[in-house]
């Protein structure tokens, strides 16, 4: 038998993924079911882009003409939102609390019996208590629901909207039919769209149709004469290849589309309307609390049954024993534990949101305090994500790595003087092979930071954006596998050209010629390839992200049917560009603090080894020996999971890594038993984010796929926010332990007090009403206020909580049992002392005992604000909610002993100031003893830093 009776209540490694909208039961409906409601996409898929534009009175290039027109349409169509309203009214929810709890029904029966037997005072008192107890429970439940509703609104859907010719990043809710939307790989489609532009566009519609293969999308209308309709006469969803459906994911390419359906007037909306409500799974902590509550309930019922049986055998009134037993059951059984846990977690998550960390799933809060490895992307998370072009190098005009055009050191220089033909060509490739766009509203370029930096440098050379002057035909988007981007265009003079940019080793391997300073093409020799490699590595060693640029004069005047990777060959190399992305100023202090707290930091980047090592050292990640601390993606490909698991403990940097490598890294770390947080922002990051204990996506740069796979979203994309979240997670877990200590010690004390008095044939020290009032204090505001105790920043000095640690540790059990014993001894002392003065039990005796127990409860709550720090260190005024809760509780207690109406309810009488002072001295003992314990533990910890972890 386990030494810990509560062993097994919590294994916080259970990771439940809440896939409400993606579960097979909810979305994979048959096509016939789905189309029982016709949606606009059914008609718009049959007509051309031009007809769509005319019908919706919009523009395929600039979108709707004005915001006024959009507002007019929003009044007609409503917001682009799908929401589920709760049909049950508040008063029905309130009344249901009276019939769903069997203990409340027993109390109602007790009040009814008391009324029949003529004990109207008891009947009224019990009824009043029932109303108060039910009201407290209802408020807690309502607060929990509202907190969770607030969490669901923290991550609103967003999209790229073009309106009046201006592109903006907006909430998807503002979309109306006729709006023009841009989307790219990783985006979730915000409404039903008629596609107007498609570049190698494939969309994953599996959550709508059940088909696993992404659907290739086109812009042409479906031929109504030749199309093979199904037996219902309706075009199946998967065959509407010019429609992008709301809620589906862009897997490849990019494009644009005109909104044809919003909200429930979409295929997704039709599914949503047919969906039955899905009950959210409980978190592991809630499940643990449920199990703990059931076991404590069973234990309480046994003790209460024993008390009732002994009382009846002793000849006590069966009605008295029945009322006492039911009241004890209401007070001792911690039915409010799961609700308070939910409220504490939800309020903690809302606090995290204010600090830029949005936790999408409550179970993640439990895991945050255990994270001991953080794997982070470099770009945009550890760095500022604001790229700046620093250096340009061309083989023709600069010959070696020492001869580089440094744009930072030559400020004020007329860069036009450096505009040789090879430099001009390199700038032109960086311009054409680019998807950033200029926003008049923001007066700046928007898009991928690298693309934005490449466009911003043009003005330094007095060059204009050349993209309006060429006709774009095809594009191969950049991804981490191919490591290049290619764009096929027709120039103004009719020439057919392919422009390519990417990792220098890739571009160099595809190049066999280069452009000299006079614009002439020359053969590329092996020696010149060495020079290019040396220069690229020199730029990388300075921490610069280095891209190579090249072009190819294509044959023929007709565009290729489809641009493929095997066509990217025999390129003409034009030059290299080195860009800097400086580390965020908050990152280094955060990393240092995490390392001191026992967290292993690993940086994962697609950059070269030299660049990665330079950045890692700048931000405080230890790289003592690059041979041991740095692992290249190529080496990673050659290693098995076991081999990686054996060496990963020493690795702090992964260079030239891909999103696919992240999955291997997480798997290897978890194989070693580590609790892993992994950051990511792309579509391919999703599997690793899902496998990690805490998947962290970026709020600004992250794709919708990454956000949905993650457990936490950083709204500022800043690594230091992870430190904040871990700190909050540790603090929340400590708070849960503290209010558990408070609740369980009070529950044990109340049960034991009545059990001992019955066993030793003493009158019951507390009557039914007094026990119910104690229950309100135990489950009410004081307990909840312990759940929102401000985070102690020193939690980061302690090592991460182990995966196998239980919530009721030996230290917690020792503390709550000791507290319960103190309360029992002190309360019995007062009870026996008062009875001894007159030899019989009087209202004064029970009033003194009752008030003593309540005072003990308040001092116990004060002691439970922190498990290891003295209240004088924590501060008396740092938790305003706690002070208000204790103040209201004490005010309620004064009402119970001084106001005649409540004196009748609780069977109390007035106490003198001397009585109250005496009770304060006795009850403060629980606080004083706990302060001594904390002091003793602190002294032990000073001599042995591992003391706290041992106890």
TrEMBL record:
Residues 60-79 are annotated as: Disordered. It is found in: Endomembrane system; Membrane. It catalyses: Ca(2+)(in) + ATP + H2O = Ca(2+)(out) + ADP + phosphate + H(+). Its EC number is 7.2.2.10. SUPFAM superfamilies: Calcium ATPase, transduction domain A, Calcium ATPase, transmembrane domain M, HAD-like, Metal cation-transporting ATPase, ATP-binding domain N. InterPro entries: ATPase_P-typ_cation-transptr_C (IPR006068), ATPase_P-typ_cation-transptr_N (IPR004014), ATPase_P-typ_cyto_dom_N (IPR023299), ATPase_P-typ_P_site (IPR018303), ATPase_P-typ_TM_dom_sf (IPR023298), ATPase_P-typ_transduc_dom_A_sf (IPR008250), ATPase_P-type_domA (IPR059000), HAD-like_sf (IPR036412). Keywords: ATP-binding, Calcium, Calcium transport, Ion transport, Membrane, Nucleotide-binding, Phosphoprotein, Translocase, Transmembrane, Transmembrane helix, Transport. The keyword rRNA-binding does not apply. It is a multi-pass membrane protein. The chain crosses the membrane at residues 99-117, 123-139, 296-314, 326-350, 812-832, 847-864, 876-899, 911-929. Its main location: membrane. Residues 43-119 form the Cation-transporting P-type ATPase N-terminal domain. GO terms for cellular component: cytoplasm; endomembrane system; organelle membrane. It holds the Pfam family Cation_ATPase_N. It is an enzyme of class 7 (translocase). Belongs to the cation transport ATPase (P-type) (TC 3.A.3) family. Catalyzes the hydrolysis of ATP coupled with the transport of calcium. This is Calcium-transporting ATPase. It comes from Maudiozyma saulgeensis.
